[in-house]
Amino acid sequence: MTFADLGLGDGVLRAVADAGYTQPTPIQEQAIPVVLMGRDVLGCAQTGTGKTAGFTLPMIEILAAGRARARMPRSLIIEPTRELAAQVAENFNVYGKYHKLSMALLIGGESFTEQQRLLERGVDVLIATPGRLLDLFERGKIILTDVRVLVIDEADRMLDMGFIPDVERIVSLLPPLRQTLFFSATMAPEIRRLADAFLSNPKEISVAPPASPALTVEQHLTIVHDEDKREALRELLRAEDVRNAIIFCNRKRDVDILLKSLVKYGFDAVALHGDMPQHKRTETLDRYRTGQVRLLVASDVAARGLDIDHVSHVFNFDVPIHAEDYVHRIGRTGRAGRSGKSFTLASPDDGRFVEAIEKMLGRAITRFVIPDIEPTEFAADEDGGRRGRGRGRSPARGASSPKPAAERSRSRGRKPAQSEIEAPLQASVPAPVRVDAVEIVPSPTPPAHAPASVEVDEQRDAPRRRRPAAARPTPAPAPAERVEAANGRDDRRPRRSGRHEQDDEPAPLGLGDHVPAFLLRPVPIARAR
Length: 529
Ligand code: AMP
Prior knowledge:
By secondary structure, the protein is of the alpha/beta class. It folds into 2 domains: about 5-205, Rossmann fold (3-Layer(aba) Sandwich); about 215-390, Rossmann fold (3-Layer(aba) Sandwich). It contains 19 helices and 16 strands. The protein has helices at about 10-20, 25-35, 50-65, 80-95, 110-120, 130-140, 155-160, 165-170, 190-200, 215, 230-240, 250-265, 280-290, 325-330, 350-360, 405-415, 420, 480-485, 515-520; strands spanning about 40-45, 75-80, 105, 125-130, 150, 180-185, 205, 215-225, 245-250, 270, 295-300, 315, 340-345, 365, 435, 440. The strands form 3 sheets. A 7-stranded parallel β-sheet has the order 3-4-2-5-6-1-7, with helices on both faces. It has a 7-stranded parallel β-sheet with strand order 10-11-9-12-13-8-14, with helices on both faces. The longest helix is centred in the first third of the chain and has 14 residues, at about 50-65. Adenosine monophosphate binds near residues 25, 28, 50, 51 and 52. Adenosine monophosphate (AMP) binds near residues 21, 28 and 51.
């Protein structure tokens, strides 16, 4: 099948050919004719499937006839994040280049004046995040009664981010006689309920997710002490052939701290997180996309949907709390069939999170050690299970530990028994491999004390020689490290609702320091095969 078979007009076909697309993707094949017929669509599709063109191409055709009136957009596309909204706007520019459609992008952090000016002139396509759209509506700057086509994109993400009440309110302001296209990567009952409320006799389309990054990305994981993570990352960045990379942290403040540290050590890096003003986010992404900087340190705002070509590496400076975020993060590399590598730096307390990720992947992530960085192991519960930060509040580094100090230092330095570390997944741990200068070995083998084949860090006072772990004193943390330590790594929390990205506000204390006994009881976890 070709694009010409789908009922698209000349202008769109030429634009698609200019973009270099020769064949429609499955979602495009199924959605485009249905949208052109004027029917509602319920699409179960992820980013990477070509779904954006699946709705923008037919919309361009539909909107080609007719003119927008001042403040009365003719179509509305709601996106959960500014980056996704900007990406859809780019798509309209690419596919609509032979049409004279007007478009406005309403996203937080951009100047109201410019957005209002565009709206005043009348727009055919309005692409918006829910918060900014409602702000402008409440100021009387926008009238939604002329919207004939509504797209709700990434509905599951909207749900995750607490945007659903806003979306419901926006939909209530639209005319009931309209065409609605609703896309979500998953169809959880809550999403279905919304779809039922918003759509009328929709055509349901479901396409397979793009090739899972779990299959296309080489994945590696090492367990290191929190205080060694930055050095571990630097060693990896030097040892690996990094064309460009995204380095994910769980919290926005850690993004800033890590950025400062990388820059101090001479790496060209920029940061991206939800607290940055929009112009800075856009500028940062542009610099990264165009190859002016090699490293992007980011929170999960960059994990989903961002379509950046040729990312060679993803580093998880923190293990994500939600297993699915791991897949989204590593999916920033290895796109469109290219190869990609990911490296995860786990802390001793990350056992349960890693276990959940491996269970979801259905296989173990290849363990590796970094020469000159002391590997460690996942902390064990009293019952021998792996401990994670999900239960109770683990003490911050330097705070008193439930284990006696002597026992702690013993367990840090000793070679752990095989059964302690890899018991649940031992069978699937891959054979040793070498990746460039970093030796990849199945955990928990201690590091081979071969001389580090990575470059010597000229900015470091001297090449670091570690004392035996048991005797190694805890170094006094540098100021930035102290922030990290004081915050501990125990403020992971479940997804919260909230209208804005707030990925590192202090977690609600809930039970405070008191942890009831039932929460400390071990939860049996099914073993991965
Ligand atoms: P999306 O799922 O909409 O985020 O699209 C993912 C990527 O696929 C984007 O980089 C698009 O430019 C690209 N793309 C969309 N449709 C096609 C197509 N028919 N052929 C090749 N690439 C496409």
